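Hey, can you fold this one?
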Amino acid sequence: MSHMSHPRWLRAAVLVLACALPALQVRAQLPTLGDTSEMNTGAERTLGEQIARELYRDPDYMDDPVLDEYVLGIWTRLLDAARTRGELTAELDDRFAWRVMLGKDRTINAFALPGGWMGLHLGLISVTATRDELAAVLGHELSHVTQRHISRLMTQQNRQAPWLVAAMILGALAMSKSPDAGNAMVAGGQALAMQNQLNFSREMEREADRVGFGVMTQAGFDPRGSVNMFEKLQQASRLNDSGSFPYLRTHPMNTERMADMQARQQLVPRGAAPPPDLVHAMMVGRARALSNPGVDVLRGYVTDADSLQPSAAPPRLVSALYAAALASSKLRDPAAAARYAQRLAGVTAGDAPAARQSVLLAAELALQAGDTSKAAVLAQTSASARPELMLSSQARIASGRAGEAAQALQTWVALHPQDAQAWQILASAYTAQGQALRAIRAEAEAQVARLDLSAALDRFKAAQELARRAGPGRGDHIEASIVDTRTRQVESLLREQALKR
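Sure. Predicted structure:
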């Protein structure tokens, strides 16, 4: 999702989208700004999945269980609030994906895509001071989707040329990272025109501000977070964005929007100042360390932690210690990483949610250092949570306890079949036990979860061939039957995709 400058990725995605767009011609019911879309919700979801499939393949896409869980906690609250307010209709709720995809990009950016897919760069998480600020951005992007702004813009461009709409989406995403890459997608001055056309209108931005503000406050987030985030972006705009704030190019700040947001804030009763949010501070440290920084930046995180006094503000201290621990691990200094993690544990001991994150970090560092037994023990603090499950499963496999890992993961994927990482780790557990058929099937299910049905079908057919080679009366008959059923299902889905093109 994040490194939108890869020309091969962009060319392939444009071809995929261009094939899909001619079918998007069905009238849909629209809210507030008028019924001007010709795309129904099913067609928009299909288009969104085609874009998401390419984003899953991007090397900067990341499935980080810790950050994913944290963002999902905010995202779920916003979705619940949108349902309560009536902004998220039953049809959109059922048909759209409503998933946030993380990218390791250090630029400050977030974007909504057709069908309820959201992109969020680690760079944006890194500049937020509170979860309320992050909720403000996600609430705004959510409202662009619930108000059908994307489909309206696409309908407008579809009246000109379907291929231009496809190129517009991918070209604009490319230019959010690299103007040169976006310009390469089209000839002459059309690239700039596409970027401008993808920008939401002033009316749409104002509507997303209004609806998003209502959603975030309904969800219980502090309205000051929205104003604070606006002020940060407005300050960046005044300083002439150097390219690290691509969000400003698709969501330009202006004094009118800022004044309107400040006025809305005055209408919401202010409560007492919330206590320090140590968990958010830790997630900021994690985002900074995982966003592909160079060696010098990683060393800077270590120096920053060393320069802080124990009397520093707790959020500042835990963020620095967390980033320093991960940075030390990346710099291949496990002893230093363990020291920073130990200091972090001392600071967070009185805060249960933050203490849990400290234990998770210690387990992750132990696994990276090769101490699989310690990692497995530490990660068992909450067997039902995804971060602990992913860490403990990898530790168990590495320490020769693949059967235990497989049992826990089988239960998980039965309840969460779209968890590609869980399927992939399960495949490793089966491989470690010599269960090749089950391993190949798990790999196929991981591809299904990533929306790559062609790759999934290849793996399912490989599993069928393996079962055939085992011969009658031998092998895992139940698993072979499941493989046959899933092969037919995926073949059917691929035929449906072909018809929609």
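The two ends are 23 Å apart (CA to CA). Let me know if you want another pass with a different chain boundary.
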